[in-house]
Structure formats: structure tokens, C-alpha cells
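Sequence in, structure out.
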Amino acid sequence: MTTTHAPDGVTGSRTLTVRYAGGGTRRGPVTMGQANMIRCILRDEPGSINIHDVWPVPDGTGMDRALDALAALAVRHEALRTTFPREAGGGAPTEQAVAAAGSFTVTVLDHDALPEDADAYAEAVARAARDTRFRLDLDFPLRLRILARAGRPVRVALAASHAVTDGSALGVLRDEWLALLTGEPLPPVTSPTPLDLAAEERTPAGRRKSAASLAHWERILRTGPQAMFAEDGATGTETDTPGLTLRSARGARALAAAARRTGALPGTVLLTAWCVLTAHRAGQSVCVAAVPTSNRFLPKLARSVGTLSQDALLDLDVRAPSFDALLAKAWGAAMNAYRHSRFDALDLWALIGRVTTERGSQFARDAVFNDISALPSTLAAAAAPDEAAPELELVWGEAQALPTRLLTFVYETEPVLRLATWADPALFPRTAAEELVTGLVLLLEAVAEGDLPLDPHGLTGVTGVRPAARGPEWVRVDGCWVSPAAVAAALSGALGGRAVEVVAEPDPDGDRVGDGDGDGRLLTAYIGTDERAWAGQESTPQQAHTALMAVLPGRPGVLAPHRYVFVEGPPRQPAAAQRILREGTGRGRDAT
């Protein structure tokens, strides 16, 4: 036992070592989900990639029983006995090793009296535990803090490695933890282990599924909007975003009534409403959103303890005459996304890089919808019931850095609609964020009453949410909202300040995206050049394109030109009146 420094308000702190033995020793390749999260863990700050949870402790539970239950979970689930050996040469781990026995530590924070809001205090302790990086090759994947009162455990606050668990896995562990402490028998583990999943993924059928998933992603990456929120103010690849929590009995009643009226599942109704509102606010005809929980839509994976964190990429064309008409195709679009949510992460990032260069775009994971309300044993399901559910309550929480512009977690849909939304404050000041969340409730209430036309003016009237205001300088090109002036500024900066003019010109091939928006435009960049100073300048289409692509991240209103034209002198129009020195596309396989 080791004594450690006690935080403020803690009367004693000690670190206990818990040993476990059971199961077998195994080793094999990582799963696709593990590889995806390992890549993020090696790239991102620990506070943004680690996850956390708070577990209650039934009254009367002794410390020894609590520690025994934690050890039993480690024996029961291979994922908790898994580490990732270092690769020779320092690359990302490609194998996982399961131990038959081992140990982990638990820090006990003892108190004479816990703060009045014990759950909020435990949440803060758990969140703080996320800030330390997990060592993939050595560490037990749960960083455990037991909050005790006079020596009796009251809460478990923990951080977890995302390489081994995801939010749903923590929910399963939480459920089993409570069962162990209350003496309820646990059923046999029937979900595949991570090593079982890895073997399945490497079968011919598994590889075909991965290839089909990549084809699904490639179609959307090549034809969908590169960013949902391409507008003034949308800058950077990460935002410091406060969370906004909604609790609404009104919303729950409206969702249930809308589901009864339409005959659709409540989850499908809610997803459709969220997509409608997101696309309406963004001024887009398609809602492209990541839907992470899709990986558990198969029954055998619903209670899996492991990380299945891979995005399903949903693209829902919201151009429909009414909500019911859109709802009729939303379920199919969602299932199509779910079926294509298991893939080799390295292959996906190679695909994204290739498409990025060839399309001249930078895909932004702007919108994320994570509905965990229907999953078994989630934190939300185990939360205390709302005895006096508010009709509509909004509560602001702490900010956190997020690589998205709109993230929604749905925790509960009955008897109260409870969700949390993080919206980029540059696009959604507090009032606008509150309007967005309450607008979702208003939309559900309108849909509960009857079918709703989906024209923008009508949606604004119903929800109070207005579409993005874009000036006349914004145009739609290749399915994306683009500011030619911003493209010119970015390209000029990438080329060391050379004079650039970018214009949207008619596409001789018509609407090559084929999305019916009638873009019919291509971007052409005219780059001023002094022929006498030609040497030493980026003076080929390929060089100009490469320079621009390097500065593209974080600029959602910038799409690379389809054609780079180097002209003698300043790039004034009409270009036909100037001498063209060189021209071409610069785009990957089509470069000339």
C-alpha cells in the first residue's frame, strides 16, 4: 500500500494493489476498432481521447467486496487484461496480448463527508483522471478512484483507455459491477472477444465487408459536402466547446407521439429530426454525419466489452416534400451506413488522403450524432429516474476541445428526452445553441401533430432556427459551399503572396456531381506571374495544388481550384486578354 498526496477536501488517500488470476493467455492481431483508436491515442491529447465514467456503490458495500468485484470484472473480460506490445521501430502496435493474471491499482480518496452533489464531484474526479496518458504496452486500461466516506466506498470515478473500451463497454461493465455487488448472477459472456473479432475481420467475408465499407465512404467523400458548416466564422480543426444538456418531458412525449403516428422507431424519428434541423441550419441539401454507435446494431455485439469505435458515415438527402416522406427513406440510409461501419482504419485514412488530393477538398467530421439511449447498460439507463421531469430544462456545462462543430449525445428518450449538445461557439453563440436544442423539441412536437412540409421558411417558423447567412460571394461548387475569395486568399498565402484571382466558371460537363443541385460550376485560379522570375516559383499546377492542400485543413469554405492558370502579369479578367504561360488541374491522377 502506498500513501499519496490528498486533494483538497480529502481526509486520506491511499493506493491499493489488486491482484487477479483467471482466464487464459492469448495473443493476436488488433481489431479494426482498436487500430482506429490506437491511431487517435498516439495522435491526440489524453484528455480528449480517454473516456470516463462514474459508478454508484450500493449502500453497505465494504471496501474488500468492492475490490473483489473489480478483480472479477478483469477475470471475466479479456479486454481488461489486454495490452498492446510495442512494435519494433516504434510504429503503432499491431498486436494485442491477453494476460491470464496480473494486477492493477486503485486510489482510495477518503472523506469525512462527501460534497452535497456527490455525483458532480465524482464526475470531476473522473474527468481529471483522463488527463494522464495510458501506456498501451503496460497499463491496466481502467484508472480507478474510489470515493469513500469514513472508509466505506460511495462512488467509483474512473478513466478508461479508448483502445480497450468505448462508452457502451463501460456501460456493460457498470451494469455487471452493480450485479456483482448486489449478489445477482451474471450470465455467461457470449459476445465475441476482441481477438475473436480480429479473427472474424480477417476472414474473406470480413475483408469483403471492409472493402464495401471503404467504397461507401469513398462515394460520400467524392460527392458529398466537404464540410457541413462551410460559412463565415467556421475556422480551425478543433473548437473549445461548452456542453449544453437538455432534459425535456415535452420532448419525450412528442417523440413517442411522432413514433406512434408514423409507425417508425423513436430512434429513427429522432435521427431524422436531428438531420433535418442540422441540414436546415447549415443550409445544406444533404446531412452528412458520423454515427458512432452503429457498430453495436448487431445483437451479438450489443454487450461486447471492447472498443468498437468506428464511424458509420450517414448521408441523408433531406430534399423531400415532407417529414414523413424523408422518414420513409431515413431508416434505409441509416442501415446502409451501419452496414458499412467496419473497416481497416489505415486503409480509410489512405483513402481520405487520396480523395483529398484528387477532389481538392478536406473532409471535415463536422456533425456527429451518438444515440446511446437504446443500448443496454449505458450510464444513462442506470441513472436515477427523473421523479419530477422538467418540461424543458437547459443546463450549460464545462467546455472541452472537440474536432467537430456539432456533436450530440442522446442518453435517454423516455420518460424524459435527455441529450447533450456541443456546438462550435463561433457558429452557435449561447443563444443560438439554445435555439438549436429547443428547436429540436419544437420540431418533434410539430411532427407529432401531423406531417410537416420541409421548406426552409416553414422550418424556420416552426423551430426558430435560421439557415446560415452566406453573402453573394459564396457559391456551390462540386456539392460544396465555397468562397472564391477565401480560396484566392489561401492560395495566395500558400504561394508566398503571389497575386491570385479565383472565379467560378461554367462547367462544360454540366453538374458533374449529379446531385441535382445544379452547381454546374468549376473553380479556376488565375495566378499572376512574372515570366522573368519564373525560376524558383511554384509555377506548375501540381506545385500550386500541393501548396494549397497543405494549408486546407481548418478552412471549410476553401475548395481547391479545378484548374490553375498561370498568366503573365496580374491576374485580371478577362484572362483571354492575357498571355497564358501554363495551365492544368494539378489534381492527382487527373493532373496535367
